[in-house]
Amino acid sequence: AGSGAGADMRTEISTAAAFVTRLLRAAGGVGEEQLRCFRECLQEAMREHYKHHWFPLVPSKGSGYRCIRINHKMDPLIGKAAGMIGLSHERLFQLLPSELTLWVDPFEVSYRIGEDGSICVLYESPQPGGKATKQVESRTSCKEDWRTGRSSPSKSYNMMTVSS
């Protein structure tokens, strides 16, 4: 692989595809072989879709175009990959969160489940030549946020203050 756009986005795409595949696996009812095929098809669809919309020097440019979204409509890339393994959109809606947003940008992949869920970072790497990005450790508690709907676990002590 040369220095073409496709070479640079491999980690971001595989991170995003693996995440959606994990969601499907967690829901159950989809075989490992199907899941493997789904992940490969999704990565291929994303690579094709992002080919001319990947700007490592301006990571936020084209972010909306690369955003994967499920909200009463199935994201076409997920729908396409699912079609390859015989999963209908109806079945996908049963298996995946009804509100899912996945942002796949150079150096960062993040997601949000629910309209007002907190945004969780799946992958983050410092931009070459840029300033080092914030540490991901501060967001490792994301799974708990997702369950409790709280955006910051450090604020949990507020829950104990009861006004009489």
From TrEMBL:
InterPro entries hit by this protein: Anti_prolifrtn (IPR002087), BTG (IPR033332), BTG-like_sf (IPR036054)
Polar residues composition-biased segments: 149-164
Domain Anti-proliferative protein: 96-115
Annotated GO CC locations: cytoplasm; nucleus
GO biological process, one term: negative regulation of cell population proliferation
SUPFAM superfamilies linked to this entry: BTG domain-like
SMART domains: btg1
Highest taxon in the source lineage: Eukaryota
Biased composition (Basic and acidic residues): 134-148
Region Disordered, annotated ranges: 127-164
Family in the record: Belongs to the BTG family.
Name of the protein: BTG1 protein
Species this chain originates from: Dasyornis broadbenti
Gene that this sequence comes from: Btg1_0
